[in-house]
């Protein structure tokens, strides 16, 4: 068993100041997480990093630059939106095996417009060879196609997606770290500039510069160097799958469909027992796909679930505002929900705190190979 | 114009682009299979005047461009490809029976 004992986030910004580097942004989130944990910087003996823009540096270069000591465990994750869960799973295994006692996990990027354009044009060889020349500048068109199919398959209207976006914007109004916090109306959502039909501007994540970090510690090693911070959240499950072939399906389900039963079994409870949920929201269609995949609602009940549960806050979803309002900090997007869940479960989400929240699930999804994301994971957390 | 899908010589599984090994059986031998037409699974217009289309070509799902907005289910024929041996972008154009997509069909 392992716990998260600290969480941190480097401020998200749409337009980073000159001189901002990925390493410095990652360091800021890391420092905040370690400070919150109550352990000393020198107690860190394991490091996991996920970033698209750290090059030419690697995880060990970052460790050196951040002034960390000798490490017994070092991990560099390349799974983008799934990297948060991927690193958590690896860190749990590592502390349980005794490879390290206090593991720092960091994910994030400097992501200004030129960084973003560079990333999406050379995301992988399939993108560079087959998609960028179409021309296609990023995945919006792919997820527009997916959204079309989902609307048809589930009988959804644009307003259903709008309720998800508006709900997250309301949560964001209570999160000073979100880049978009102003209230939004359904009319504003529906009338926003079209990006790729049926997607409008507010259906697409805004890229931001930022980073998220957590500190993981073995649950049975809580002392003497166990930290005296305010957060202690148990990782009940961290399950993930990789290389789900995106040419096999229509994209309306993700790898979570197979992962979720394992996660619930390990956790010992199901989606009906959650107090807060964070699903990977690069597009609202993916929220819906994941609602179904993890068993939060049934196929014939999606519209009602959105309007009566999510939009009302009865089922709190993406309480930070999610990526759609808080921003997508590159690889940090995979850790963003984890940090928000830790804040909720440790009672440190002022302005958006779910009273008495003790159980959360966080999903990750990412790495578009050619059509849709090939990696999907889920962690289930409980206040310890 | 012709595009080449790749058929595993051991089990017949088809793929595009070509892979190092067959995901079904692990075989490493592939033979090119010419294909010239596809059926539209979905389409969305882009700001540069072409539609991005999801196309089923003999059971393989491909992403391509089309100079007009096709309808779901419409048959397209391959017009050009910068390279037909497994890399390059794909351009499809409508087959003989093109009916311009209606707004309602684009926004189900």
TrEMBL record, chain A:
Pfam families: Thiolase_C_1. Residues 246-369 form the Thiolase C-terminal domain. SUPFAM superfamilies: Thiolase-like. CDD domains: SCP-x_thiolase (cd00829). This is Thiolase family protein. It comes from Nesterenkonia aethiopica.
UniProtKB/TrEMBL annotation, chain B:
Residues 99-108 have a biased composition (Polar residues). It comes from the Bacteria. SUPFAM superfamilies: Nucleic acid-binding proteins (SSF50249). Residues 89-108 are annotated as: Disordered. This is DUF35 domain-containing protein. It comes from Nesterenkonia aethiopica.
